[in-house]
Amino acid sequence: MTTPYQHQGAPGAVYSSPIPIRRAHLGDAIASEWTKIRSVRSTIWTLSVMALLLVGIGLAVAAAITTSDANVEDQPILSLGFFGVLLGSLCVMTLGVLTVASEYGTGMIRTTLTACPTRGRVLTAKAIVFFALVFTVTLALTLFVGVAQVAIIDQGSPTTQEWLRSTLGVSLYLALLGLLSLAVGSMIRHSAGAITIMIGLVLLPLVMAMFMFTESLSWLQDALLEYSIPSQLGVLYDNSVTQSGPMGWEPLWIMLGIAAVALGAAYTMLNSRDV
Amino acid sequence: MTRSRWGWRMIEAVGLTKRYGAKTAVYNLSFHVRPGAVTGFLGPNGAGKSTTMRMILGLDNPTAGSVTVGGQPFRQTPNAPRQVGALLDAKAVHGGRSARNHLLSLAQLSGIPARRVDEVLGVVGLQEVAKKRSKGFSLGMGQRLGIAAALLGDPQVLLFDEPVNGLDPEGILWVRNLMKQLASEGRTVFVSSHLMSEMAVTADHLIVIGRGQLLSDMSVRDFISANSADFARVRTPDTEPQLREKLSAALSEAGAHVVPEPDGGLRVMGLPLPRISDLAHGADVRLWELSPHQASLEEAYMRMTQGAVDYRSTTDQKAGLMQQPQPGYGPPAQQVPDVPQQGWYAPPPPQPGQHPYAAPAADPRLPAGPAAAVPAAAPAPADPTKPEDPR
Questions:
Q1: Does some domain include residue A90?
Q2: Radius of gyration of chain A (CA)
Q3: What is the distance between the alpha carbons of residues B132 and B95, in angstroms, rounded to a whole number?
Q4: Is A149 strand, coil or helix?
Q5: Which of B85, B152, B358, B364 is the most buried (most CB within 10 A)?
Q6: Which regions form coiled coils (chain A) (predicted)?
Q7: pTM of this prediction?
């Protein structure tokens, strides 16, 4: 009924694998995360929807302005891309949250962390792969939309600074916003909860500001308006809601700081919590 | 309990304790697992098997105590996936990813060549569905995928949490042989299960826990001899009750321990079958039955863990839900006599001193018998030790 107690001849003949053992490093983790992110449909879907929003809205606005012969010379042409990017940011946030939280939802995280007990490496690899993917896709889309808008409207040409901020700047901003979502997803560990938090973070400051009518709260109202994520995105397009507040490239540094703090917290929690 | 003849301790737990809030999932658990053998990790549902497995893999931090794999805590092990492979939960995969991509991502993460993925897919027999999304997999296919992931790094230590769940008989046989083969190659194989019958044919060594505490740590052979209670069933002609008395007296005189059974048979312990037959012949008693019975490991295990079961089923009373019978109609309610199943009798508890597995009686945390277990047997609605809990 039972097998003999001693199977092999020499006791203590511990198995050793014939496959050469190589110490895994961050590059391996990045390759792994790239395989993961490209092999699920949610990536394809969120990025496709984002492309549709950016290109569709960007071109539609441009086309509407051309056909109505509106004079937009007081406004930079590239800022027409703002609406598409604002909606597209929802897709970036969703993807950012899903990149981490879906592993918790499915239990895959335990398999992952068994294969790589250096937990920080997994989160770093996720952040790098996700940042690179979102940055590349957004840069390509904003460049395409910008060039198309300038070509359609044909009223003057934007300066180099405007070009840089509305393509490179906006792409970096969205990628950092995505990193913030990724960090929130890693801390909340629940897809729907983390996505809700991120959408609230983007929309609530503006909505709250709308209801602050009293004089005593006007400073708060201004701050909420100036530093809300849509306004900061607008600043990169020279299209701010207010005249004060962050200017030029400043929104990028603000978002960089927030994302760094959130990622730091995510690292600490990942290393200390049970999974 | 330690035995010096096991030179190697691949997995070693010392005073392992894990609390989730007020609930203690694992308490002061010390054991070790040696290479070259299949070690079964047994316990009822909620006994703390999965929690222990997660602590071995560094996924959960122990509240107290420590556990090492190959002499180091798992999270400090260099090349961990090449040393340790684990199947924790067959459903712990992203359903939208194909089996091959799932394994590929794990191989890349561990620095394992990609062609190893196709190898292990072949080993577990999933080549046909390698490109299919794992969402559509049956539980058995999921188990095979999980086993493939565990084998990916060709590790020397393998942990399997309930590997045969959902497998068909062919799959169960395959897993059984796989475990034995892996152990015969000199690997350390640690398999959890709540099925004693499965472990009895797979494992060489058993670690039994209940309520997060060690109940037994011994080889299967020792377990059997410590818990065996072989007996013979003897039936004399029903038509002549006096023969039964006569035989019973003769057997007792010869040194047997004779217990009458409710259906009129006799349970005889302490005498071999031929001797019983000889004695019956000598006493001029005809026999209708003389059959050997061996206590199965399942019975020994049930008895051992009966005080440590967290989730106990009760009879469905349907109280107040049944239609009241009209008085005067229908047959009068009859008391169904308690007829024990033929051939199943829990063997008597082993003699004192013969059961080294028993928890120390001084420890009040572990109820020793079913009576003491009643207050704690109330179902706990949320058991944080189970991986299927949403977190």
A1: yes
A2: 24
A3: 10
A4: helix
A5: B85
A6: none
A7: 0.79
CB of A115 within 8 Å of any CB in chain B?
yes
B7 and chain A in contact, CB less than 8 A: yes
Per-residue tokens: A258:
């927030």
Which amino acid appears at position A85 of this protein?
A: V
Residue at A6 is within a domain: no
Contact A24 B184 (CB under 8 A): no
Q: What residues contact B55, with CB distance under 8 A and at least 6 apart?
A: B13, B16, B18, B26, B61, B62, B67
Rounded to 5 degrees, φ, ψ at B33 are -125, 130
DSSP letters, B66-80, are: EEEETTB-GGG-TTH
Range of A160's domain?
27-272
Residue-wise pLDDT for B86-110, tens only, equals: 999 888 899 999 999 999 999 999 9
The residue written with tokens 């013969």 in the block is B354
- The packing angle between helices A170-188 and A250-272, to 10°, is 20
Domain contains A62: yes
Type of residue numbered B175: V
Give contacts of B58 with chain A, Cβ < 8 Å: 113, 117
CB contact under 8 A, B97 and A36: yes
What long-range pairs does B365-374 form, CB within 8 A, spacing at least 24? B365/B24, B365/B27, B365/B211, B365/B213, B366/B210, B366/B211, B366/B213, B366/B307, B366/B308, B367/B307, B367/B308, B368/B307, B369/B306, B369/B307, B370/B306, B370/B307, B372/B307, B373/B306, B373/B307, B373/B308, B373/B309
Sequential pLDDT tens for chain A (275 residues): 444 443 434 444 678 888 888 999 999 999 999 999 999 999 999 999 999 999 999 999 999 888 887 666 667 888 889 999 999 999 999 999 999 999 999 999 999 999 999 999 999 999 999 999 999 999 999 999 999 999 988 877 888 988 999 999 999 999 999 999 999 999 999 999 999 999 999 999 988 888 887 888 888 888 888 889 998 998 998 876 666 778 889 999 999 999 999 999 999 999 999 98
Q: For chain A, how many residues are written?
A: 275
Task: For residues B296 and B69, give the distance between their C-alpha atoms in angstroms, rounded to a whole number.
Answer: 33
Instruction: Give dist(CA A121, CA B81) in Å, integer.
Output: 14
B54 touches A at CB < 8 Å: yes
Q: Indicate the number of domains in chain A.
A: 1
Per mean pLDDT, which range of A105-119, A164-178, B144-158, B322-336 is the poorest? B322-336
* C-alpha closest to that of B102 among B150, B63, B57: B150
Within 13 Å of residue B153, how many CA atoms lie on the same side as its CB?
Answer: 30
